[in-house]
Amino acid sequence: MQKSSRGVxxxxxxxxxxxxxxxxxxxxxxxxxxxxxxxxxxxxxxAIAIAESGLEYYKWFLAxxxxxxxxxxxxxxxxxxxxxxxxxxxxxxxxxxxxSALQCNRVQWIDLESxxxxxxxxxxxxxxxxxxxxxxxAEYAFLLNSNVWFTSSNLSNGPYxxxxxxxxxxxxxxxxxxxxxxxxxTTSYNCNPAQPSAPGVVGSGPGFALWQYPVASIDFAGVAxxxxxxxxxxxxxxxxxxxxxTYVAGAQQGxxxxxxxxxxxxxxxLVFNSNGTVTIYRxxxxxxxxxxxxxxxxxxxxEYDVITGETLLGTFTPPxxxxxxxxxxxxxIEGTVSGKVTVVAADTGNYAPDVLPVNxxxxxxxxxxxxxxxxxxxxxxxxxxxxxxxxxxxxxxAQSGYYGRDYxxxxxxxxxxxxxxxxxxxxAGSIASNVRAGTVWFDSYGNVTxxxxxxxxxxxxxxxxxxxxxxPSTSVDYGLVLWREQ
Length: 486
What we know:
With 486 residues, this protein is an alpha/beta fold. The protein is built from four helices and 35 strands. The radius of gyration is 31 Å and the shape is elongated. It has two domains: 2-133, no CATH class; 137-475, no CATH class. The protein starts with a helix and ends with a strand. It has a 17-stranded mixed β-sheet that branches. A five-stranded antiparallel β-sheet has the order 1-2-3-4-35. The chain has a five-stranded mixed β-sheet with strand order 23-20-19-25-27, with no helix packed on it. The longest helix has 62 residues, at 2-63.
């Protein structure tokens, strides 16, 4: 019996030892796996830090080689940036690939891809993508250089900014920012009684939690476009309407014609087509019997905005490598845009032309591949004969004038009294105005008597960081945007 007991005890001991060895093996294996996982995790974290270091290095490189940002010449890609620890030696390396977006042989932005690899384990690289560019007016729903009143019938979906004071009575779903701490809010801005020292943003709007003042100002002189340069680029590689001839990529299209430049009564009518072309007319006659009152001047003006005579010049395709249309005259625009294109209406002489959205403007796609920027040397004005329900897509810049619609008085519209009051204006994009903007007028009782009864402004989030060529910038400083891991 004793020998049998000892045998059982031996079996039990052996069994427990086996179980113990299995458990210990499992624990040891788990510890080793966790250590391996920890090293891999550490390598991954080092890799993302190395990739960030690569982006910052290339940002420094571009900042110290500004000539690259003109034509892209001198761009080094791919480039390997080594990262070292002063005490521990080499940490890893980042391989940076840089790709410049060119229009008219001018850099619009530079896309960067930085792949970071840690020296401790090269199996876990990580890649960061970013865009190196200047901030543009496309990042705002409204960008203004003067005091403004957003009425209760105005809905804003996107950042609003003004270098002056803001009366905000409408609904804002994003920030409303003013560069001033106080301003003189008079009755013309719906402050009744007037507030000589009103807060930078004041009003009855419900979105006051998003009001900001004072904030840093934006130099509107810096927003200005270099019209001489744009004229040369369009004449060489884009579409150039000189006033007496039409050029595409430097080649004259058809015969010369009598000048339509430097005149409020003549100009060009651009109709964008969904196939990517633009049909251009030479405006030879306008109705000069409409009178409009402008806040900009505080005076009544005889307007020549309704087209009564025009001649077809042709249908043209903006060159893909230089999608700029430079109009050396007053311009009327409408249609459906395909692809990205910029229209500039300017005169390097003493005349500063306006751009008139005469009808709806739409996009064939809304995925960021289509976009329109319109830059007027003076104003973006809505003529009296616009549609009752009007929709616009685009980035509209009134460089020295205003964005808006004039005040009209029945009996002095040249037969367009029924157009004085319009139903709605919906803008998807951005508006930049140097002088006080406004597309609606009220009587002393608060009733809408002129312009668009309701206005909705929504900025285009996609085009904010991939705008059409030569969209004006709000700063001379470049930065990294659209930071994301691949």
